[in-house]
């Protein structure tokens, strides 16, 4: 009879929250190799290259908590020196993200595990059983007796990686709340402006990262997810493996070239260029939502020859959007297009350029795209159609006067129609009741006259 292995439980504890996560064995036997360029003042070029195996699995909370499902990365390093260097590097990344998340506006009593976030928070766990404290905000540890942990490391972890290494201090766990991947529309003939407000938290988070001297460095559609809680929802960045600090300047970068800012593609690495690289990726993601991911890839990011792309020139982006979003009798998209092309120039290298403020300008520009008709829009009016026109005009004026993006105004219009329909229904019922009462009174009156008349 084989004894069942004890559950590998990760304990997380932060300000105002805690979680106990049961880690599942990886389903797939495949692992991938990831390389990290870790700062190392002792090396000739100031960088230590760490190559580590990575396996992916999941964990679930065994008690009611903010998140029931968690994403888990298992890193396996070649030796203890690499493990210690990688642990310090990942901890620094996680600490920077925690700080940026704490800078975001929200409820004062909001727990750090609750969005909005700049990036989904990651917690680093030591598999040697020691407790990890991240800047005094998050404490992590494994709930296993040392002998059980050692047995798992010797008998379970090596099977996950296909090796015989028994040492627990060659492994690290990185756990983070599980986020929902997005299904990107390939092409959109009309801009999906209803999702603009979902970028407010993400834009604010990107600004917060930059204020703390950190860049994500790999902003692309695959690294953007949606979160949804009882209190809020929106888009958020994931995967900070490529994130780096601006001071000291990074000697090497991990990024996805096709989504990279033009000056980064040409080898420039200054702080202002790296911030612009993040902002450029953010702008492309917003356009993927507005116009479609496949359209962005084929129209803006395809090499036109000599390394030139439409996305690297503002006029090219403007022309492409004008061709994509044809004006209609009711709407003209020029204000939205002018706001959308703003990040495709050198202005995004300015230290004070704000992703959040740009999103707000997009929302304002979308409102400016509404053009009221001036000609007749209905057949010859009857008394009844005239009354309906007055009702519709009142609803239209109310919606246009409401501040905020299109979805809020649409909801306001629906609510106004629903409320007015209820008022008219109540009025009709009252009039019907009065008419019915008058009819009954008339019948009674006739009967009284007949009876008394006959009696006379």
What does this structure look like?
The chain is α+β, with helices and mostly antiparallel strands. The protein is 41% helix and 17% strand. Strands 1, 2, 3, 4, 5, 6, 7, 8 and 9 form a 9-stranded antiparallel sheet that branches. The protein has a 3-stranded antiparallel sheet with strand order 10-12-13. β7 (132-134) and β8 (138-142) form a beta hairpin. It is globular and about 80 Å long. The N and C termini lie far apart (110 Å). Residues 373-378 and 443-456 have low confidence and may be disordered.
Q: From the helix content, strand content and strand pairing, which structural class follows?
A: alpha+beta
Strand fraction equals 15-25%
Q: Supply the number of helical segments.
A: 12
Distance between the termini: 110 Å
N-to-C order of helices and strands: EEEEEHEEEHHEEHEEEEHHHHHHHH
Shape: globular
For the secondary structure, the number of strands is 14
Largest sheet: 9 strands, antiparallel
Low-confidence stretches: 373-378, 443-456
- Mean pLDDT rating: 79
Q: Helical amount among residues, as a percent range?
A: 40-55%
Supply Rg. Answer: 31 Å
